[in-house]
Amino acid sequence: MLIEMSVANFRSLHDKQTFSLVKSSGDELETTNTFSAEASKTFNLLRSAAIYGPNASGKSNFLMALRTMKSIVRDSASSYKRGTPLPVTPFRLSAKSRTEPSEFEVNCIVDGVRYQYGFAATPERIHEEWLFAYPKGRAQRWFVRGWDPEKAVYEWDLGHNLTGEKQLWLKSTRDNALFLSTAIQLNSEQLKPLFDWFDETLRFSAVSGWDPGFTASLCEKDDKSRVMNFMRAADLNIDDIIVEEQLFDSKALPDDMPEHIKEMILSDMEGKKFVNIKTVHKDSEGKDIVFDLDDESDGTQKLFSFAGPWLDALKNGYVLFIDELHDNLHPQLVQFLVQLFHNSQTNPNNAQLVFTTHETSILNQSVFRRDQIWFCEKTQALSTHLFSLLEFSPRKGRENIEQAYLSGRYGAVPFLRKL
Length: 419
Hints:
The protein folds into two domains: 1-207 and 323-419, Rossmann fold, CATH 3.40.50; 212-308, no CATH class. It is α+β, with helices and mostly antiparallel strands. Strand 1 and strand 2 form a beta hairpin. It has a seven-stranded antiparallel sheet with strand order 2-1-6-7-8-9-10. The model has no long low-confidence stretch (mean pLDDT 91). Helix 6 packs across helix 9 (298-316) and helix 7 (224-233) packs across helix 9 (298-316). 26% of the residues lie in helices and 26% in strands. The protein has eleven helices and 18 strands.
């Protein structure tokens, strides 16, 4: 479960920006859009949040910050070699910030324990790293790491509540690797839940959505009925899904393709299996007519690709981040997807959804609480400013949020000029 995330000096995010999924004091849509966190009765969290803002305001960069954090946690110890640059890009429109570390921090709840974990990094090294845990409600400092540039060494504080081969993990941690990641590689059981949260629970999709392969794999298992229910509920008039596995056929390569390219493709693809996805529709006489998935509309293809990951997230309680959810989807389909997270029957394990969008038809108080709506805009210094609708104290149940947003009351809209 995600509580909040902060990021500073990453791409267009210059000053520290904090995004929160903590429920505010309002009681609207309480039974559907919020839930009580298992770790503490003081943490009531939101099941979803939407981020609005004009193009180039930094919405995607904010999601990319958490994706980058996940990548460094997952790969820095296992995949990076000594000297491999870390994938961080500072805010480049300030001479000072170009040489300073990017900073990331997450507050989350995993298996009933709250964690506060973060790090600061440049491409060359990790400058700081810290982890506090709250297994009994009070903070325990498990480890803190800081780079001393004058002495050119790291200063460490390994708390007594952290158990295991701490000195071995410390000595094995490279400059461009996280202590958390290194300890996991060396079999830390205590840190595994937090690492697994980054590795497995955090899920991302770009504008283009997902590849349809995962949904197809569910159709080959017992989950096909869930996929079909999803497609029918979305009113796509698809009567069946057929998934066929085919071996790569070298005869499909064009005759005029240069031989050296053919050889490269054959060496890589020969013997591999491909999935061919087909949809079934009824004709006017009730007969089955089979189509390739590629013959369906872009929206149908996207929704089919969404079905598997969406159902998987709802089933397992994942935290899902989607960039531009509205792309190629009807506004009512966007609302359909969001409302699946707001329903305890379809979301029994309190999965969370965070998405960016330009779709304003769902920007109303019958779909979202006021604390679920966020905005992004560029400052005069061209840095990203992330802020909540709550800053404007909209009237509960009365204010037309869509109309107010489009009229510019909250900002975060494009300032258009005459051509």
